[in-house]
Amino acid sequence: MLIIFFLFHFISPAVYGDNVKDSARRAISRIDQAYASGRIERKVYLDSVYATVNLLLSANINFTNKEAVELLRQYRKTIWEEENTYEQKRNYYAILSSQAHMASRMGEKLYYTEKIDKLERAANHNRPSLSALSSLASYYEVVNSPEKIIALYEKSKTYIDTIPQLARKEPMTGKNLGQAVIFLYFTAAAYYDLGQITNGDAAAAVMQQIIRITKEKYGTDNNLMSALGHVQTLTAIKGASATKDARKQWKAIQQLEALRNSATTPQERRNLIDINLNFWKLNYFLKQRNRDSTARYLEIYGRVIENGRKPYLLFEYQNYKAQALYNQGLFKESADTLTRAIAILDSSRSLIAQDVDNILYAQAAAEEKQFLLEEASVKQKATERKLMLTGLALGLLLLLGVFIIRFARHRQQSRFLKFKMNLARNIHDETNPALLYAKALVRSQATGNSSEKAELEKQIDHTMVLIRSLSHDLRSDRQYTIASLIEDTGQLLRKLNSDNSFIYSIGKPLNEKRFISHYQYAELKAILNECITNTIKHAEFSKIEMAFEQNNNRLTITYKDNGKGWDGGKKSEGMGLKNIEERINGLNGDYSIRNQHPNGYSIQLSVLLR
User: pTM of whole model > 0.70?
Assistant: First the structure.
């Protein structure tokens, strides 16, 4: 009821006082608006548009392909919004194919038929599309190309011939079975036209099997049954005509007339049967040389054909007219009429006609691509706007995040620094007095070994140094690393080698950024400074080499020069070894010296990093 309301209320020119095409556009537009506003659901919308457009087609309201594509813009967009919409997509292309067929734009019809075939193959495991096959066969029949119909059948013969078996095993719709019957009718007719009677009968036999199964499954569908009866009798008439069996042909014509007069045959089907009856009665009476009946049906058929203006049907009409004139003994008029018929046929088969179809095919493809490009452009702009807004939002969130992180880190760092300062102050204020008191107690002891007391005082002093160093590390913002030690040592070497009097090299460890305490940094720096100073003061050298190696928490430093080294009896003279030894012991480290006199020496230091 909804569809009827749309059609008769919105299409009526009286409503708008406009032409029928504009009223049809308004009708579709109203359905579009009803869906966009949420007044009807998606399925109701799609069904309403499909049914309304088909009613427009049945009312002979013809649009150009471009107009039809534009008219169905929202309909198409709605269909393609979801993935599993095979039926709706097929309906969309079926509308455009029917529109093209009604307007005899066969190139467009071919294009949309191929679209339907591609859809159905994708949905049915690459099986040929029955509706596409019947549509293509119809196209080739209109352009009088029986060879192409046969080629189409031969290509899909394996599948078509198994339909009777498949129909008993699989759920096949009445619509698909009907399309198979129509395709087989065109196939049988093509074989009959080419005089291949046996092949035509074989195709007709497969068709009869499908008709029997369809009647068993869908016998209550009057529309489908009348369509099958129509095709069945046409096949019988065509076969009888091919074998020149006049009795059989007339019997089939009478069966077709009985179907036309049946109360179960829809009016739409009756109109189609009327056209076929006029044609085949004309064909029959011509062969029987019945002048009166021939003249009657030739006149009727002529009126029908003149309205359609299809080239091959015009040729047939003129050909029959020539035969009628010949039967009347009017040989010159018959020859002239036949000449005109051949000219019409030549025109329909000309390259110009083929070019028109090719142009229409290409135009339909181009118009659909243009539609898709426009749709893609709209989507791209919408996507770009979304991306821009998303990018802006993300940028703001990022800035906000950076601000929050930096603020939190600043607060955390301030708290940590405050904690370090308090800890350093507590360590200094609480441990130093205790150690000073311990030192005073040691000194106050009158008795005891003096060397042991000295050693104890020395350890207390060392502990106080370590605590001061630890306090310094806690108070300081600077964090010392192995890289810091290497850099400071390198600066000393560059300063002392301003005249390039010697060469030096420093081998660096993989983990230069390993932290070391201020005390370790200061002591190791002092040791290396002592080594460098001693080399410059006392050795005749040209090269200094240093290497830093780290293994887990242990740092090993190797220092060597290529001076003379020293005699064994002069080991402690001028080398500051005592100072080095005291410092390395203070670090709880190890060292070893390798004298290579007179070829220099090397010293290896090893400390455990804290």
Answer: no
